[in-house]
Design a protein that fits this description.
Helices cover about 35% and strands about 25% of the residues. The chain is α+β, with helices and mostly antiparallel strands. It has one domain: YlxR-like (Hypothetical Cytosolic Protein, Chain: A, 2-Layer Sandwich).
């Protein structure tokens, strides 16, 4: 039997994609929002496609804020955007 591929929904565009193709953003126990490149860090995770459009869409539709049930400061989005640009070739 074929191994089931875990799917995750992008909080930006709402598309379901394989977990490996997505970027994971987590909320740590301290309430910090960080990009989880390994996908193994502890914390509440939300997933985004690896495109800047989805990050911008998540900003606009407050997808991350809904996932983490908290308001997210604009500076955190800017930090995520910088990390994003560094990770995506």
């Amino acid at each position: 039997m074929a191994k089931k591929i875990p799917l995750r929904q992008c909080v930006g565009c709402g598309q379901m994609k394989a977990k490996k193709e997505m970027m994971r953003v987590i909320k740590t126990a301290e309430g910090e929002i960080v990009l989880d490149v390994t996908g193994k860090k502890n914390g509440r995770g939300a997933y985004l496609c690896q495109t800047e459009e989805c990050l911008l869409a998540a900003m606009k539709n407050k997808g991350l804020e809904r996932s983490f049930k908290m308001s997210i400061d604009h500076s955190i989005y800017e930090k995520l955007q910088k990390e994003y640009e560094g990770d995506i070739e």
